């Protein structure tokens, strides 16, 4: 055989061998993929075409103390159309009847829906949007329409369900009700009661399989979930919606009048610590007010003269003074080192008793009492305050509680002026709720109770967990001291020289203390000097049922800034209206009927509202609670159908109020 033929034949053998080896390798890989890695690649293929999605459960409802809804989860539905799964016969027969039904339900044109359906059929669209954000009744109606009634495989209906959290009270108590939000990274933001009690409200997620039909588009497989979601428990709060409404509107009215930056009101049941109302309103750049932040719980600030009660209790407990001890107010100016302590009254009050010094809120008297009696042993003073738990947080479940500030001798910021400054509420800091807890303890003869926002957790009618009264300190002071200062708090309002006498009412008794504190006082610019006005106390004075604090920041100085003028009237309005709607004590003359008290309590409020409106206002889109409040205050009888926000009103806006007796609101 010639050499050339041998060479060619050798090459052919080599090529054939290579082909055999390559074929063997391919065969081995195929066997490996099929047998060894088969399950892995099948799973990978499935993940690219099907995917397990989580289904958020319905959060439990959040209720007020009487069972009224504060927050609830409402299911919303999006309806899509899969034009590929429907047979030509079914589509042709049902496209017009389906379009007619959709048009009738959504008040549109049949041709509009025919165009959407036919275009989806033509483009083989498997996820054409038909309707968005349907409530349950509309969703059930759509499910029964021609073609869609055949289900997802024959009828092409694709249902996407989600839950939306709604607050029937609208903006009232919005920060206290709160929310829980989850960002794209899974980070949770928890605010208010919704956040604090999320472990009960949130429930357990479900699972559902969806198939990928296009880029970033997934269609649910079938109608059933793989794992059904478990709804959260219902939480019953301590909030009383009537008291909340009273507190909200009383605060709003005063903030608007004084053009203040922000403010808060808290009403607490004295014996139990149940918070019945907590309102926080902040000002926008346009001068409107809304629940911006939870100032009542989160904002720690210098309390000013409301802190004099703490100092009075401390000095009485240490027996360095008695209520009859005489103090010289130094003509309203007392110099300590290079600093002057001044009274609000020019010329001071002369030589007065400790009792009167408290009633007139003399800064010089209290600065002398605390400085002169503790300057040799300031640790004794601070230790006494600590024994009353002034330095501790209340330990609330709601996140963001402000930290109280109480310096100890030797700490940074402590100086020779500290005792005198602390005597009338500077160089210390407390939140409004922390201050109220102390006043509430005095009303309880010294028992410090933890403020409480929740009563119980339920699953349907079964109680899962109950929350009872919690005592933080059984005795912050002796009963003797508590009784003495109770009388002085009462005298602040009842005696003519008391700083709170302008709040006095012969119909019911109140006890409390005014407070006026400077902000930005270290600045030399007088325009930057701001004020905090406050009033803290309880009512009725002799048998307290509720304690209350009102704190208003940065009122317009040209209008007024003293606590008695700015915050005191809010306290009185809240107390008066609560009292008018639910009499609290037996000592009232029975001739003073509920109707008379209601008329007296609301007379000013009715007048101000009616001056603004002579015609029926437009309340569409408002929360039912807000709408009813406005319309009833205009003297109308209101009938409500449904829950949520106002969808329609039976009397159109602009109608003369004199011609209207009753109005019907439909809520969605």
From TrEMBL:
Coiled-coil residues are none
Location(s) in or outside the cell: Membrane
- Domain PASTA per the UniProt entry, residue ranges: 610-668
Q: Does the keyword Chaperone apply?
A: no
- Mind listing the UniProt keywords for this protein, alphabetically? Carboxypeptidase, Hydrolase, Membrane, Protease, Transmembrane, Transmembrane helix
Transmembrane ranges, per UniProt, are 12-31
- Protein known as: Penicillin-binding protein
Q: Which organism was this protein described from?
A: Maribacter cobaltidurans
């Amino acid at each position: 055989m010639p050499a050339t033929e041998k060479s060619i034949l050798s090459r052919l053998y080599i090529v054939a061998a290579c082909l055999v080896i390559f074929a063997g390798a391919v065969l081995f890989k195929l066997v490996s993929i099929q047998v060894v890695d088969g399950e892995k690649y099948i799973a990978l293929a499935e993940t690219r075409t099907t995917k397990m999605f989580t289904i958020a459960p319905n959060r439990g409802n959040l209720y007020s103390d009487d069972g009224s809804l504060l927050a609830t989860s409402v299911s919303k539905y999006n309806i899509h159309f899969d034009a590929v799964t429907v047979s030509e016969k079914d589509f042709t027969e049902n496209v017009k009847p389906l379009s007619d039904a959709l048009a009738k339900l959504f008040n549109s044109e049949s041709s509009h829906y025919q165009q959407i359906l036919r275009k989806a059929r033509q483009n083989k669209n498997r996820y054409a949007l038909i309707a968005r954000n349907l409530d349950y009744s509309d969703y059930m109606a759509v499910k029964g329409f021609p073609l869609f009634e055949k289900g997802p495989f024959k009828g092409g209906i694709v249902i996407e369900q989600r839950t939306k959290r709604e607050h029937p009270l609208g903006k009232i108590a919005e920060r206290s009700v709160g929310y829980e939000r989850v960002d794209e990274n899974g980070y949770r933001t928890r605010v208010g009661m919704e956040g604090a009690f999320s472990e009960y409200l949130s429930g357990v997620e479900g699972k559902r399989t969806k198939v990928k039909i296009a880029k970033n588009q997934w269609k649910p497989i079938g109608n059933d979930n793989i794992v059904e979601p478990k709804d959260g428990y219902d939480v019953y709060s301590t909030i009383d919606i009537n008291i909340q409404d009273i507190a909200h509107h009383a605060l709003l009215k005063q903030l608007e009048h004084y053009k203040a930056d922000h403010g808060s009101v808290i009403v607490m049941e004295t014996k139990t610590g149940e918070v019945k109302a907590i309102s926080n309103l902040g000002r926008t750049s346009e001068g409107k007010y809304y629940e911006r932040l939870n100032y009542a719980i989160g904002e720690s600030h210098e309390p000013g003269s409301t802190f004099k009660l703490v100092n009075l209790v401390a000095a009485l407990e240490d027996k360095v003074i008695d209520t009859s001890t005489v103090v010289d107010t130094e003509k309203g100016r007392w110099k300590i080192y290079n600093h002057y302590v001044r009274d609000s009254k020019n010329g001071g009050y002369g030589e007065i008793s400790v009792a009167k010094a408290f009633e007139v809120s003399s800064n010089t008297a209290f600065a002398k009492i605390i400085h002169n009696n503790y300057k040799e042993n300031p640790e004794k003073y601070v230790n006494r305050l600590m024994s009353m738990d002034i330095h501790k947080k209340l330990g609330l479940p709601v996140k963001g509680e402000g930290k109280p500030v109480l310096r100890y001798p030797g700490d940074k910021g402590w100086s020779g002026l500290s005792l005198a400054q602390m005597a009338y509420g500077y160089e210390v800091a407390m939140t409004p709720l922390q201050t109220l807890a102390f006043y509430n303890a005095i009303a309880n003869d010294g028992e410090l109770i933890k403020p409480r926002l929740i009563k119980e957790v339920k699953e349907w009618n079964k109680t899962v967990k109950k929350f009872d009264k919690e005592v933080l300190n059984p005795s912050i002071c002796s009963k003797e001291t508590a009784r003495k200062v109770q009388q002085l708090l009462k005298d602040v309002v009842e005696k003519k020289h008391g700083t709170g006498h302008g709040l006095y009412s012969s119909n019911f008794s109140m006890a409390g203390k005014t407070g006026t504190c400077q902000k930005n006082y270290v600045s030399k610019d007088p325009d930057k000097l701001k004020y905090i006005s406050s009033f803290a106390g309880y009512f009725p004075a002799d048998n307290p049922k509720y304690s209350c604090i009102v704190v208003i920041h940065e009122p317009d100085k040209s209008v007024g800034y003293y606590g008695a003028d700015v915050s005191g009237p809010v306290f009185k309005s809240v107390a008066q209206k609560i009292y008018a709607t639910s009499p609290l004590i037996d000592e009232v003359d029975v001739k003073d009927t509920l109707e008379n008290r209601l008329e007296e309590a609301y007379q000013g409020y009715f007048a101000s509202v009616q001056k603004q409106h002579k015609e029926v206002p437009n309340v569409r889109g408002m929360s039912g609670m807000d709408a009813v409040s406005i319309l009833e205050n205009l003297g109308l009888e209101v009938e409500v159908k449904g829950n949520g926000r106002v969808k329609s009103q039976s009397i159109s806006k602009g109608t003369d109020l004199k011609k209207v007796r009753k109005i019907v609101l439909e809520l969605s």
